[in-house]
Amino acid sequence: MNIWKYTYIQFFKIRRRVIGKDGADDYAAMLFVALLDCLFYWGVITFADSFTSYHLLPGHEILHTVLFLGGAVIIERVHNHTLCKGDAFDHIRKEVEAEPRKTLWGILSLLYILSAVAFFALSLYCNVNKLVPVLIPL
Fold first, then answer.
1. I need a labelling partner for 22 at 20 to 30 A (CA). Which of 28, 48, 61, 110 fits?
2. Model-level pTM?
3. Which residues are within 8 A (CB) of 45 and not within 5 positions of it... i.e. 6 or more apart?
């Protein structure tokens, strides 16, 4: 059991209650978990740009696109392979439903979601306002 599996199944259940059944429930839930990892990844890339004197993102649109979208596609593919392929969904669902500490995992899942959004927002705020000291002048 890990935070990705618990968040995956809980988002699946919420989506199913709100929207109803459709053919892409498990894939959409996987995309939500992948989006959270992408927010951390994009925040790290933004901070890396800040540490290298803000040269990476504004001046090189192709590199910017490759780093942001390429990383997101890799994260999506890894999560798709680990969470959606074969009978992985049923196995994960049984594992989550058998977990006795649902309250703990619910709190950890909520903290994970909030920290992903907060980290990405902080990285953008620091980058826009140039609050990060330059460690590697280029």
1. 110
2. 0.85
3. 56, 67, 68, 71
